[in-house]
Amino acid sequence: MEGLIVKKNANLFTVITGDETYFLSARGNLKKDGIYVGDKIEFSERIDKVLPRKNLLIRPPLANLDKLFIVIAPVPKPDFLLVDKMLVYCYVNGIEPIIVINKTDIAEKELLDEVQKDYKNVTKVIQVSSKNGDYESLLNEIEGICTLAGQSAVGKSSIVNALLGKEVCEVGDLSKKVMRGKQTTRLVELYKFDKGFLADTAGFSMLDLSFVTSILPRELSTYYPDFLKFRSFCKFSSCLHQKRDKCGIIEGVKNGEISSLRYSNYLKLLEQIKEGQKF
Ligand SMILES: Nc1nc2c(ncn2[C@@H]2O[C@H](COP(=O)(O)OP(=O)(O)OP(=O)(O)O)[C@@H](O)[C@H]2O)c(=O)[nH]1
Ligand SMILES: [Mg+2]
Ligand SMILES: [Zn+2]
After folding, report:
1. Quick one: fold of 212-274?
2. Band of pLDDT at residue 277, cut at 50, 70 and 90
3. What distance in angstroms lies between residue 27's CA and the mean position of ligand 1's atoms?
C-alpha cells in the first residue's frame, strides 16, 4: 500500500492513506533518518520503501513541499530581504510561493498597498487575520504539501490553529520564547485539510537559506519573475544589472515598472552571493 508520512516520533511514523491512519516502523534496511515527514512510501506491516522525492528541505525537515506560505505582518516589521530570499528558495526548489499578510486587523492600508504593488508581478499575495476569523482565502490555497514560514511572531502557529479550529500549535509572545531557549526541539507535523496538508514551522531561522551560496551571481535574476521581460533589453547577456550602462532592469526600475525595493534587495542578495556569505 502507499501512504504519506505526516509525523515522525523517534522510530514511529504516522502514515495516512486516504482516511486511514497507521503507526508504523521502518524495515531494518531502511534508515529511519532517511525518512521524512512529507515522504510518500510503500508499506506492508512496516515501511518498505520511500518513493522518489520532488524536493527535500533539511530545516524544517520536510519532503515533497508543493507550496510555501511566506507570512508577514505589520508587527514584527517585515523583513523584505528575507521575503525575497524565501522567494528565490522556492523558485530554486520548484515550490509555489504565496505571500500571506497576517494581522490585517491591525495593519495600515499603506503596508497592504505597498506589498500588493511590490509583489504583484512576483507571486500571489493574500491577506488574513487569524484573530478576526478572516482566513478563507488561505484555506482555499492549501493543496498538496504546504508549510508556513516567516519571522518569529508573525502568527504562523495562530494561523494553523485558526484554520484547524483547535489549539494544536503553541502560540506565544517573543519574549517568552527567547527565555525558554533554543533547545526546544519541535516536531514537524502535517495537518490534514480538504485538498492538502499544512505544517507549521517555528521562527524564520528554521528555513535553511544557506543554499543561496550555491547559486551563481548571474543566475540570481533568473529567479525574479518581475525582472524577466526586462532582461532581454540588457546589452550583455551576462549583465548582473548593477551598472547603468544599457541595462533593461535598471531602465525598468527608472520607469517605475520594477519595484525599487525588489531591486535594492536584489543588489544586497547579489553581494551576499558574491561573497559566498552564509545566511
Ligand atoms: N492582532 C493580531 N495578532 C495576532 C494575529 N495572529 C497572531 N497574533 C499574535 O501574534 C503573536 C505571535 O503569534 P504566533 O502564532 O506564536 O507566531 P509564530 O509566527 O508562530 O511565531 P514562532 O513560532 O516564534 O515562529 C501572538 O501574540 C498572537 O496572539 C492576528 O491576526 N492579529
Ligand atoms: Mg509558532
Ligand atoms: Zn541588466
Report:
1. Ribonucleotide Reductase Protein R1; domain 1 (1.10.40)
2. low
3. 40
CATH code for 2-52? 2.40.50.140
The CATH number given to 57-206 is: 3.40.50.300
Q: Where are the beta strands (DSSP E) in the chain?
A: 2-9, 12-17, 20-24, 40-43, 47-50, 56-57, 62-63, 67-72, 96-101, 124-127, 144-149, 190-192, 196-199
- Once rounded to an integer, what is the mean pLDDT over residues 17-35? 89
Mutate to test the pocket of ligand 1, among 171, 184, 185 (most ligand atoms within 8 A of CB): 171
Q: What is the mean pLDDT of residues 39-59?
A: 93
218 lines ligand 1 (CB under 6 A): no
Evaluate: CB of 103 within 6 angstroms of ligand 1. yes
User: Please, are residues 186 and 128 in contact by the beta-carbon 8 Å criterion?
Assistant: no
Mean pLDDT of the chain: 89
